Structures are given as C-alpha cells and as structure tokens.
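New to this. Please check this fold:
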Amino acid sequence: MSDAAGHAYGHGHGHGHGVGQDTDRRKLSIALALIVVFMVGEVVVGVVAQSLALLSDAAHMLTDAGSIVLAIIAIRLAARPPRGGYTYGLKRVEILSAQANGLTLLLLAAWLAYEAIRRLIDPPPVAGALVLVTALVGVVVNIAATWCLSKANRSSLNVEGAFQHLLTDLYGFVATAIAGAIVLSTGFARADAIAALIVVALMVRAGVGLVHQSGRIFLEAAPAGIDTRALGGRLAAHPDVVEVHDLHVWQITSGQPALSAHVLVAPGRDCHAVRTDLQKLLARDYAITHVTLQLDHPPPDLFTITRAHHADEHGHCSELPTPSVDKA
C-alpha cells in the first residue's frame, strides 16, 4: 500500500540509485577539474593572441564549468526523499538544471555571434601559432572530459546538459585549431571569426535541444516516442476492459515516465487481475512502472445502455436519447 506522496508501506526494496548518483558526481567532478584548469590558461592566451575564437571557447568553458557545478548540485538535491509538500521529492531540480544549461548556451551564443560579425567586418591581428597550439591542447582536454561524462548516466537530462556543453566545446576547439592553422599559413585573420560562428551554431543547436526537452517535461507532455492514442488502445483492447478514460502520461523527471487512468472492467471480472495485466504491459512495452490505475465496474444501467440498447455495429455508443422526467 502507498500514500499520495509515494511513500511505500510494508516490505521495502532498494533501487541502487545512490550508487549511480555517486558515480555520476565523481565523473562530473573530474570533468570540472579538467575544464577549470585549462580555462584559466586559455583566457590568458586568448588575450595575448587577440583571438576571439579562443576567448569564445574560454567563455563557453566557463558555462561548461557552471553547468557541471549545477548538475552536481541538482543530483544531490534530486536524491533527497519526498517530504512535506514535495510528494515527488526534488527530482525536477535536474530538469531546471538542464533548462538553465540550455538557456546559458543560447545567451552566450547571441553575444559571441555579435562579436564574430563585428570582427568579420574589422578583423584584428591574430597570433595564429598561439591559437593553434592552445586549441590542440583544448581538444585533448575536452576529449578527456567528454569521455568521462559519456560514461555517466546520460539518460538524465541534467547530465546530458553538461555533456552537450562539453561536446560543443570540443567541436569548437577543432574549428579553432583549423582557424589557427589557416591564420598561421595564409594570414587570413577572418578565419578566427568564422570559427567563432561555427561554435555559435553548435551552441544554438545544443541549447535549443535542451530547452525543448526540458520544456516538454515541465509542460507534462508525454515522453518522446510514446503514442498516447496507441497506448490507450492497447489498454482498452484487454478482453476484460470496457473503457479507458482520463488517461495521462507524463515524466516526473528524465527517464521516469508515469501514467494514470480510469479503467472500467466488465461486470464479474477480476479487477485485481486486470490491473496486474495492464501494469505488466506498461512495464514491458513502454518502460512505465510508476502507474496509478483506478479500476471500477460500470454501473449496471450504464453497461446495459452501452452494450445492448445504443451500440452500433462496431460496439461503440451512439447518441443517447434525452432523458425524460416524470412529473407528478
């Protein structure tokens, strides 16, 4: 038996979530250390070399560090058990973190796009050798950090947000290294600003994706890949089910879908057996294990109208007659 807050009463069982969260925190912390150490050096070199591409990468790495810190805090808060008015606990803090990561990517992209266009019009001298060497070191550092996070639980939108920050930064360093090589070999200074615009495009793509996915969760949309109409049809197709209505499918947080529905069971059929069958179907075919099903038998008069007097050839209800009232 359980109450509305999701607390279980009886024989409990563990899910091993704590072990996975500890592992994710450790991987995030390692990636954070790599990013911060390199970011400080990149800012210095970027100023000396007058490279917007390097400074944009450094700014992006600052948001990387911020996103990782936010992700670590979110994991700790989400691990707290439900209490008080927070019947789901603080699991959606992770989604807030993912949305914040997406928004910072978009805001930073807007500023860098402005700076890159300005430098395309009036390019300053760029030290190509410094840009190339620093970018190559950045590629190595970001590969290490990205690999570390790739081993974490990326089904969490929170961890995925931090991973997308690092991944776009890695692509950005590759573009910056190419720009540094072009400046060094040809003297074409605008290559630096062009590389910054490539970074901007990658940041916009990642940022829009994170904001869209987190927004779907906050708006209680069904998880991507689940057709609610088809799912409802599967439930209603059970031989002992008369009707399914008030069907809702949403996500508590990333990777934790939930479902509730009101199910009418044919008279004389076992509601408990039907509930078990439907829960098994949802877990097996849709990976939905947080399920609340209200099962009832239809009132006898409703069942008679639905099944006998006003059903078409497909078994669907036709328009019911207007009820009459006997007057004394």
In short: The first strand starts at residue 241 and ends at 253.
